[in-house]
From TrEMBL:
SUPFAM superfamilies: N-terminal domain of the delta subunit of the F1F0-ATP synthase. It comes from the Bacteria. Keywords: ATP synthesis, Cell membrane, CF(1), Hydrogen ion transport, Hydrolase, Ion transport, Membrane, Transport. It is found in: Cell membrane; Membrane. GO terms for cellular component: plasma membrane; proton-transporting ATP synthase complex. This protein is part of the stalk that links CF(0) to CF(1). It either transmits conformational changes from CF(0) to CF(1) or is implicated in proton conduction. The lineage of its organism: Bacteria, Pseudomonadati, Bacteroidota, Flavobacteriia, Flavobacteriales. This is ATP synthase subunit delta.
Length: 178
């Protein structure tokens, strides 16, 4: 738990600095690409977590991979290295994106469907999320053929399950209880 608290503190500090420098949006983009790169590359993740790899090598790799990163982002690398907290980089990046979205009054609406959402359906989902929460949202579409049809909408702590598989499960439970 202390790791996640530390990550949030670093993320708040970077967000504050980036906001003061009017570069919060650019740094948000950097943090999204850092989180995505770490999630997609097991080698990068292991290198960051490894106590055997020298800090100077880790910094060189980060600067090479994220060569277009904002100054605030590269300063974060330095700070995490100095404080021996570089393994927290992914958590810091994810926390920053979350804090930035909160600051903007935005959120991510995860919609799980059996087939990809059309632009028309995305627009309807965004309107419904705005109606329910009063906040703007970005739609993240997850394809899961096991739900058969319908959708599962998740925004923050709210989940609405209108999938066919959920309805079939309910029917199955009703028949087995009677």
């Amino acid at each position: 738990m202390s790791g996640s608290r530390a990550a949030i503190r670093y993320a708040k500090a970077v967000l504050s600095l980036a906001t003061d420098q009017k570069s919060a949006e650019v740094v948000n983009s950097d943090m999204k690409s850092i989180a995505k790169a770490i999630a997609e590359s097991e080698d990068l993740n292991q290198m960051l977590q490894s106590p055997v790899v020298r800090s100077s090598d880790k910094k060189a790799v980060l600067l090479a991979v994220f060569k277009d990163a904002n100054v605030a982002t590269t300063n974060l690398f330095d700070t995490l290295i100095t404080n021996k907290r570089l393994p927290l980089l992914n958590d810091v990046a994810l926390s920053y994106v979350h804090l930035y979205d909160e600051l903007r009054g935005s959120q991510v609406a995860t919609v799980t469907t059996a087939i990809p959402l059309t632009e028309d359906l995305k627009t309807k989902v965004l309107a419904k999320v705005k109606e329910l929460t009063g906040k703007d949202a970005e739609v993240e579409n997850i394809i899961d053929e096991s739900i058969l049809g319908g959708f599962i909408l998740r925004v923050g702590d709210i989940q609405y399950n209108a999938s066919i598989s959920n309805k079939l499960d309910k029917l199955k439970r009703e028949f087995t209880l009677n």
